[in-house]
């Protein structure tokens, strides 16, 4: 990951332009969230631009009555949110007759969609789903009981919604009771506070400047439960709404993740010299000896901390991996204190950070080499039998596999090399006929990850199947990548989201790596002809 190697002019210009655009955006390039916007619509009737949010809610409902992106199991939570928000507006009784009619139809279609979902999943491992889903089911049933009794939704049909299999109706109340005796709610629950707001006593009222847990939904829910926070919530939510046309993303501002992931992606294909000062400034601002948090109001976590250490190393800053020590559990790194399930990609980023730092500071080997070795063992132990990895922060195995392969290839050694070869074989076997990859369909994002897997696994003498797979991928990316392309949402938060700038950086870097590979092959062929 050199920052000085000459690169193609087109790539340099586009990469620098992307860095400038990210640097100038004070909020982050993610699309509005249906789930989050519906939660604000439900909880904050006092917030300006409600008609815009109602229109968005109606526009975003799919033909089958559901809301959200991805396969049907991913639509459970946004559909619950959409139905509950429509019911909240109907119960307020402030909408026009026309809007009331459209909302009533939307509710019935949404309820039908929810009742048609598999009764027991399986459901995706998205943030705090175990709290958010039963909370919304309870809210919907409470509103249905009052509205149907009053005759306000004469078209509503069917029984009350059951809590889907795999979820516990008492989970939100149980979590609230657990911390009642402590007298405070852990920060890890702030981002999803809307799931337990009804069960929180004043003694657990979370106190935070700005958006609670970086979440518009959590902020609106806190204001609904504790009106003393409403005035501040109006200011904070209005600022976000101005950036997103009256709507809301799942996290705001989305700067730390965006800047670190963009920087690391571009560095894979070499950072342009013109972008280096800006990226260095990001690293200086974000790196924190006490650990890095992905957004204001969130917990410090190993993933963002590892990426901050990595990017700092890539741009030559003398920052060590010591902040990662906060999360080490003996064999690998917990994402945050109190984590239930480990993250493959967070640990892959940590291994990359350790390897990069050790290459520049070999005197630190005694301290960090043993941890890197344990991390290599842990990562290879998480590999699936087919050769890939999965992770809770992304729906696609190509993301987790690319992260793991990059880290293991940089670490080296026989054990890591075997894992990398197995991953490359799985990647070749799963390529689609059009040259792309994708867990649900062809995407440029996942194709970029697959390209990096194969390039990381490349040998001095390329295998024919590798060469063919990369040639097909290069053609696909050239055809499918274009300005304004809307990337499918594949990243996990409360629901699926798509960090546009991060994805653009991944695709841009993959295309540059493919261009460099082709140029190197042409040079080698020319030399062979000259020798002949």
Describe this structure in words.
With 532 residues, this protein is mainly α. It is 55% helix and 2% strand. It contains 19 helices and four strands. The strands form two sheets. A two-stranded antiparallel sheet has the order 1-2. Strands 3-4 form a two-stranded antiparallel sheet. Helix 17 (444-456) runs antiparallel to helix 18. The longest helix has 32 residues, at 500-531. The chain is globular and about 70 Å long. The two termini are 34 Å apart.
How do the strands and helices of this protein lay out in sequence?
Blueprint: H1 9-24, H2 34-43, H3 50-59, H4 76-92, H5 97-116, H6 129-149, H7 171-180, H8 216-225, H9 230-243, H10 256-268, H11 276-286, E1 292-293, E2 300-301, H12 302-314, H13 344-360, H14 365-381, H15 397-411, H16 414-429, H17 444-456, H18 464-480, E3 491-492, E4 496-497, H19 500-531
Antiparallel strand pairs: 1-2, 3-4
Helix pairs in contact: 1-10, 1-19, 2-3, 2-4, 2-8, 4-5, 4-6, 8-9, 10-11, 10-12, 10-19, 11-12, 12-13, 13-14, 13-15, 14-15, 15-16, 15-17, 16-17, 17-18, 17-19, 18-19
Notable traits:
19 helices, two-stranded antiparallel sheet, 532 residues, 2% strand, mainly alpha, 55% helix, single chain, disordered N terminus, globular
Q: List the quaternary state of the chains.
A: single chain
* Continuous helix count: 19
What is the percent of helical residues? Answer: 40-55%
Give the total of beta strands.
4
Percent of sequence in beta strands: under 5%
What is the residue-averaged pLDDT?
92
What does the main sheet amount to? 2 strands, antiparallel
Q: Strand-and-helix sequence, N→C?
A: HHHHHHHHHHHEEHHHHHHHEEH
Shape: globular
Main sheet: strand order: 1-2
Structural class: mainly alpha
Instruction: Give the uncertain stretches in residue-range form.
Output: 1-8
Q: Report the C-alpha radius of gyration, rounded.
A: 24 Å
Query: What is the end-to-end distance?
Result: 34 Å
């Amino acid at each position: 990951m050199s920052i000085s190697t000459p690169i193609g002019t087109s790539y340099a210009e586009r990469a620098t332009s992307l860095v400038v655009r990210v640097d100038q955006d004070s909020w982050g390039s993610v699309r509005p969230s249906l789930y989050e916007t519906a939660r604000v619509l439900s909880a904050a009737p006092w917030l300006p631009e409600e008609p815009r949010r109602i229109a968005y809610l109606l526009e975003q409902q799919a033909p089958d009555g559901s809301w959200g992106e991805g396969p049907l199991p991913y639509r459970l939570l946004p559909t619950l949110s959409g139905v509950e928000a429509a019911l909240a507006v109907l119960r307020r009784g402030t909408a026009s007759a026309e809007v009331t009619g459209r909302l009533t139809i939307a509710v019935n279609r949404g309820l039908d969609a929810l009742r048609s979902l598999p009764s027991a999943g399986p459901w995706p491992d998205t943030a705090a789903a175990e709290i958010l889903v039963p909370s919304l089911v309870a809210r919907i049933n409470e509103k249905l009981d009052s509205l149907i009794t009053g005759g306000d939704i004469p078209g509503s049909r069917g029984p009350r919604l059951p809590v889907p299999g795999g979820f516990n109706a008492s989970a939100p109340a149980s979590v609230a009771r657990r911390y009642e005796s402590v007298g405070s709610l852990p920060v890890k629950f702030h981002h999803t506070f809307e799931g337990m707001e009804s069960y929180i006593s004043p003694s657990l009222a979370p106190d935070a400047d700005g958006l609670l847990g970086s979440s518009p939904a959590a902020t609106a829910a806190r204001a609904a439960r504790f009106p003393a926070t409403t005035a501040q919530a109006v200011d904070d939510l209005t600022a976000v709404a101005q950036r997103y046309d009256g709507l809301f993303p799942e996290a705001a501002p989305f700067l730390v993740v965006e800047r670190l992931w963009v920087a690391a992606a571009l560095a894979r294909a070499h950072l342009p010299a013109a972008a280096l000062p800006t990226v260095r400034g990001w690293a200086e601002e974000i790196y924190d000896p006490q650990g890095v948090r992905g957004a204001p109001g969130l917990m410090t976590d190993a993933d963002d901390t590892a990426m901050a250490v990595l990017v700092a190393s890539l741009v030559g800053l003398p920052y060590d991996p010591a902040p990662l020590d906060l999360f080490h559990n003996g064999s690998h790194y917990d994402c945050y204190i109190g984590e239930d399930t480990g993250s493959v990609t967070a640990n892959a980023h940590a291994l990359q950070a350790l390897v990069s730092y050790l290459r520049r500071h070999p005197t630190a080997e005694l301290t960090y080499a043993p941890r890197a070795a344990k991390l290599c063992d842990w990562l290879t132990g998480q590999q699936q039998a087919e050769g890939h990895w999965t992770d809770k922060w992304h729906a696609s195995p190509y993301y987790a596999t690319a992260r793991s392969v990059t880290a293991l290839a940089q670490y080296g050694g026989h054990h890591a090399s075997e894992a990398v070869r197995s991953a490359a074989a799985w990647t070749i076997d799963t390529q689609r006929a059009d040259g792309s990859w994708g867990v649900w369909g062809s995407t440029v994002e996942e194709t970029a990850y697959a390209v990096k897997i194969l390039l990381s696994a490349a040998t001095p003498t390329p295998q024919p199947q590798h060469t063919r797979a990369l040639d097909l991928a290069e053609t696909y990316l050239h055809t499918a990548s274009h300005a304004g392309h809307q990337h499918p949402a594949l990243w996990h938060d409360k629901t699926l989201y798509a960090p546009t700038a991060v994805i653009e950086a991944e695709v841009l870097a993959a295309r540059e790596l493919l261009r460099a590979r082709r140029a190197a092959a042409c040079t080698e062929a020319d030399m062979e002809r000259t020798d002949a």
